[in-house]
Design a protein that fits this description.
- The chain is mainly alpha-helical.
- The chain is about 45% helix and about 5% strand.
- It has a two-stranded antiparallel sheet with strand order 1-2.
- The longest helix is centred in the N-terminal third of the chain and has 37 residues.
- The radius of gyration is 22 Å and the shape is rod-shaped.
């Protein structure tokens, strides 16, 4: 009987520790995603001829969760290597998130 109680206590402490670990891990991942998405894209205006058009710079981002707009995702898909934003290869990136 005492072994069963000790075993139950150990299991409860283990479960509690595991849930706290999961919460911490998830909060770190969401914080990392927020940091990635809060980084403003580097935008440059090439000159007076195209003053209304802005371009983005390839900076290593490859996923939709790292983009801030459909225009940005489209630019990255068309100009940057290694992007993973067009799962069905139809040329439209981030259809579930940005380019609906």
């Amino acid at each position: 009987m005492q072994r069963l109680i000790v075993l139950l206590i150990i299991a409860a402490v283990g479960w509690y520790g595991y849930t706290k670990f999961q919460e911490r891990h998830q909060s770190r991942q969401s914080f990392s995603a927020q940091v990635q998405s809060s980084k403003s894209p580097v935008q440059t205006v090439p000159g007076p001829a195209s003053a209304s058009a802005s371009t983005f710079k390839c900076d290593g981002r490859t996923h939709c969760s790292q983009m801030t707009s459909c225009a940005e995702a489209t630019y990255f898909l068309q100009h940057c290597p290694g992007t993973k934003m067009d799962g069905n290869n139809d040329g439209i990136p981030c259809e579930r998130q940005w380019c609906k």
